[in-house]
Fold this sequence. Notes:
The strands form two sheets. The chain has a seven-stranded mixed β-sheet, with helices on both faces. Strands 8-9-11-10 form a four-stranded antiparallel β-sheet. The chain has helices at about 5-10, 10-30, 60-70, 90-105, 115-130, 145-160, 165-170, 185-195, 215-225, 250-260, 315-320, 350-385, 410-425, 455-470; strands at about 135-140, 180, 205, 230-235, 260-265, 290-295, 305-310, 390, 400-405, 430-435, 440-445. The mean pLDDT is about 95. The relative contact order is 0.14. The protein folds into two domains: about 5-75; about 95-360, 3-Layer(aba) Sandwich (Aspartate Aminotransferase, domain 2). By secondary structure, it is α/β, with parallel strands linked by helices. Strand 2 (about 180), helix 8 (about 185-195) and strand 3 (about 205) form a beta-alpha-beta unit. Its cofactor is pyridoxal 5'-phosphate. Keywords: Decarboxylase, Lyase, Pyridoxal phosphate. It is an enzyme of class 4 (lyase). This is L-2,4-diaminobutyrate decarboxylase.
Amino acid sequence: MHxxxxxxxxxxxxxxxRTRQWSEDFLxxxxxxxxxxxxxxxxxxxxxRLLAEDGDGALAALEHFWHHYADGISASAGPRYFGFVTxxxxxxxxxxxxxxxxxxxNSLLSHDTVAAAIELATVEQLKSLLGLPAAFNGSFVSGxxxxxxxGLAIGRQWLGLQRGIDVAEQGVAxxxxxxxLSANPHSSSVKALxxxxxxxxxxxxxxxxxxxxxxxxxxxxxxxxxxxxxxxxVLASAGTxxxxxxxxxxxxxxxxxxxxxWLHVDAAFGGVAACSPEFASLLEGWQQADxxxxxxxxxxxxPYDSAIQFTRHLALQMQxxxxxxxxxxxxxxxxxxxxxxxxxxxxxxxxxxxWMALKAYGRSGMRDxxxxxxxxxRQLGAELAASEGFRLLAPVNLNVVCxxxxxxxGDALAARDGFLERLDQQGVVRCTPTLFDGQAGxxxxxxxxxxxxQDITLALNSLRACRQEAG
Length: 471
């Protein structure tokens, strides 16, 4: 064995202990750490771009990383990171994620590990939490991008089946043009269209309801009627990124009876609202969708690299993703045979953090995260609306506050970007830019399990101070 590898094997307990210490130091500093470190701290030294002939061992490498780059790590896991839709990691999920790397299981049905059985159990628990029926099967993928990709790939196969074409075998060219209809598709779905060979140009944006991001079902009906026999995927939103708008799924399902199409519901973070009786009605009808995306590293608060794709069409899923090799088990139709159901052959045990979190906190713990975030988002929105220099661009429907600067003279985009730069320099709260209804907007998305009322106070103080600096 290489002498440095032998050294690290001997020192493994010490390596793990130092890692634990640095992890504890980082987590304990989250409330004071900047949510957006200075750009100078986000750079890599020139020496660290080069590969050395001989290494110094794990302890030295860890020490070097922490000494040189700890200041460049954002507090994105903390309670005041409202950028994008970024959750944190609950203690149970964090512990499980560490174990995932320690035990290093390839989460397939390989008959030599419990990983696939845990994944299936996690999917079943998640369906129970979210009110999804037994008809759905699910599997873990790396994020919403791959969940959307998987759902649309199965939909592409279904469109071919309706016309006697096996797209997985014959290719998408055998099917010909596919129409994709949506009002507010997430950018990851548009990326998926490119990867699937359907093409971004297949997407047609349908009009929305007045003063809302939800799809105008009458406008959708007119689009469908123009070419009633054309293969069609409909991408529904269950929580848009700007205003958490939900498409009217019962109305879409009624349309599906007249114009058969594949209904994919992107519920990356908005689907988790179904765990609360207060908000479950927003998801009415998703039980009859063809495929669904739910992201675990958002509102379910497990570490990054975790989402779930659901579908009612297991056999079609296996047609798309089956993997043939002489050294692997042949495809068999079962809901835990993940080698033949997901884009990846090699899959880390990403179900374990969610299984552990569900075991640790149960239905009530998940519900608390959702309801508390919504309450705090509404408080933030009300305070901003009452503050000089701000205005809401939309009502706070759930957990996202979409707002703008009020009283700006001149270029609104430049004023917005300057404001956000000052906000990042303070490092107290992270918000991200957006455009809403043609206006320069700002988003604050609350999904972190640690966020409490004092965080809203700190965030508001920073937002107001930065607005006052602009005059």
